[in-house]
Amino acid sequence: MIAMNRAGLGAMVLALGAALVGCSSGTKPARHSGSPAAACAFEPVAILIHPLTRLVIQPDKEPRIDAHIEMRDAAGDEVKGTGRMALELYRGSGPFMGGGMREQVLRWETDLSNLEENSRAFDRVTRTYRFELTGLPESPGEKVGLRLRAVLKTEGGRELTDEVGLER
Q1: Parallel, antiparallel, or unpaired for β 159-166 and 146-154?
Q2: Per-residue confidence of the chain (168 residues) as pLDDT tens digits?
Q3: What are the DSSP calls for 1-17, one per residue?
């Protein structure tokens, strides 16, 4: 057990209180300098398209993508977040970040600032945001190279992205 004098304990309580006030939700979100150390401890600083994401093609059913998006804080832990989530489907070759011949096929957008929508999308078991994406083009499983790109625009002004190739 760590011994702490009253002055040390008081300083720790004041620092914790200041940190919590900085993270509290007001009418306008706080702006951060962009460095992970300056961000609110529980604000997403990265998103990942989780390996559970898959293209689902079943007989006599509309094809769909089950997309699972994970948000991570500066410590690398899974967190919830708010902002506008866009999921974009591309056909073509090469990763989005590295160029290549690409054609955007579809785009879905969800407002995760709406707390009801945020709660509905969050899967408590996988700790990811789950989106069922429908309306896919004909023969989505052909060898034409489908890529899914996720973009989260946070209320704090950050744009977080990730992408993955989809296979049948």
Answers
A1: antiparallel
A2: 345 555 554 444 444 444 444 454 443 444 445 554 554 778 999 999 999 999 998 888 899 999 999 999 999 999 999 999 999 999 876 555 555 667 899 999 999 999 999 999 999 999 999 999 999 877 655 555 789 999 999 988 999 999 999 876
A3: -----HHHHHHHHHHHH
**Cα–Cα distance measured from residue 92 to residue 47, given in angstroms and rounded to the nearest whole number:** 23
Report which secondary-structure segment, H or E, holds 40.
none
Q: What is the spatial distance between Cα 69 and Cα 67, in angstroms, rounded to a whole number?
A: 6
Pairing of strands 122-123, 102-111: unpaired
Long-range contacts at 22-30 (CB < 8 A, ≥ 24 apart): 29/154, 29/155, 29/156, 29/157, 30/156
Contact 54, 83 (CB under 8 A): no
Cα dihedral 25→27→32→36 (10° resolution): 20
Contacts of 104 (CB under 8 A, 6+ apart): 88, 89, 90
